[in-house]
Structure formats: structure tokens, C-alpha cells
Amino acid sequence: MSLEKCQNNENLSIDEVLDKLSLLYTNAIDSLRSAIAAYVTDGQLPDADARKKGLFAYPELCVEWHGQIDHCVKTRAYARFVKPGQYRITVTQPDLFRQYLTEQLSILQQDYDVTFSVYPSQTEVPYPFVIDGSDLALDRSMSSSLAAHFPITDLADISDDITDGLFQSAEEMPLSHFDALRVDFSLARLKHYTGTPPEHVQPYILFTNYR
């Protein structure tokens, strides 16, 4: 996503933000699944130009703050800005996180003079994350061919750089500790270890070692 897009804010309401996040995400997932089905069935490759325009891309949320403060609670450790600018993050499964996003964005809207916008990002959804919940019939022998033509799960792109303080950009600031790739990876791990879809996992989880 270009910086110019973020500067051209749509100034959406919170409900409009969440609805657009959901629409873009759903369209990306449906497009990716359909493209995989077409490739498996007929050998049809996904359209490269359409991919550049965000065919398989996560939606990106941009919040812009110009520095005005209404009544920010400075002692609060969350939902607060420390300097004006553009804050952006890619978002996955917005319907699952709708209540949380509504709460956090409402605080920002209340305490800061912010504008919201939503666009397709430049980060594509890896195809392994859309296999579950679909009617795609795939086997392991297809992995290499799918990886050659569809976005894959690259661990080099899934990191904790924001949380670890390693994220650096002169143009933008992160809106959240974790981007869509990192969240999707974590949700996949939850399902793997619990055998339960993430929407049915309890909100509090106790992590222990194998001993």
C-alpha cells in the first residue's frame, strides 16, 4: 500500500471501518480459494495484475492523528498515541475481532482527533490459512506446485519485530503489536494444539512446557 493512499483518508465511521475490513478480507479469502480451485481443476494460474491490485491481500487499517488531544488519559497503557502521524496495521479475521476492534477504535476516536481509512494492503494471505473451512480437496503432493503460484507461509515474514522494538519506518508507525500474518500464524497454532477453531477457544490460555 502506498503512503499516498493513507494520506487520502476516507474518514470512515467505526462501523464503516469494520464493515469494509470484513468485506475486503472476505473477498480476498474467496478469491484465493476460487483461484486455488481453478488451478487444481484446470491448471489455471491466478491473474498477476489482479494480485498486484490486492486480489489476495489482507485489508490494512490506517489511523491518522494530527496531534490534537481532546482528553487523553495519559496513564493508560493501551489505545494511546505518543506522537502524531499515520498508524497502520494489516488485519485478519475482522469478524472474530470485531468487538475488540470496536472497543479500541472507539477510545481513539473519543480521545484523539483521528481519521480512519481501510485499503487492500501489499501483504497477501498465505494459501495454507484458507484451506481449513473450505471444500478444497488437496493432498501433500500439491504443496510444491501451489507454493510456486500462490502466496505461502514464509516464517521470515512472520516476526515479533514490533513487540521487540525492532520495527523501523520513517513513513509509518504500527497500530498494533502484531500484524495479520503473525495473528493468523498464532490462530493456526491455537487450532493445531487445541483441536478447536479459534473462535471457540476460551479467552484465557495457560501455557506450560511439555514436562
Q: Calculate Rg over CA atoms.
A: 19 Å
How many DSSP helices? 7
Given helix and strand content, the structural type is: alpha+beta
Q: What separation lies between the terminal Cα atoms?
A: 45 Å
Order of helices and strands: HHHEEHEHHEH
Uncertain stretches? none
- Overall 3D shape: globular
What's the helical proportion of residues?
25-40%
What strand order characterises the main sheet?
3-1-2-4
The average pLDDT value, as a whole number, equals: 86
- Biggest β-sheet strands, sense, barrel: 4 strands, mixed
Indicate the proportion of strand residues.
Answer: 15-25%
Number of strands: 4
Instruction: Say what oligomer this is.
Output: single chain
Topology:
Elements: H1 3-7, H2 14-42, H3 48-52, E1 57-69, E2 85-90, H4 98-111, E3 112-124, H5 128-131, H6 143-149, E4 173-174, H7 180-194
Parallel strand pairs: 2-4
Antiparallel strand pairs: 1-2, 1-3
Describe the fold and architecture.
- The mean pLDDT is 86.
- The protein is an alpha+beta fold.
- It contains seven helices and four strands.
- The termini are far apart.
- The radius of gyration is 19 Å and the shape is globular.
- A four-stranded mixed sheet has the order 3-1-2-4.
- It has helices at 3-7, 14-42, 48-52, 98-111, 128-131, 143-149, 180-194; strands spanning 57-69, 85-90, 112-124, 173-174.
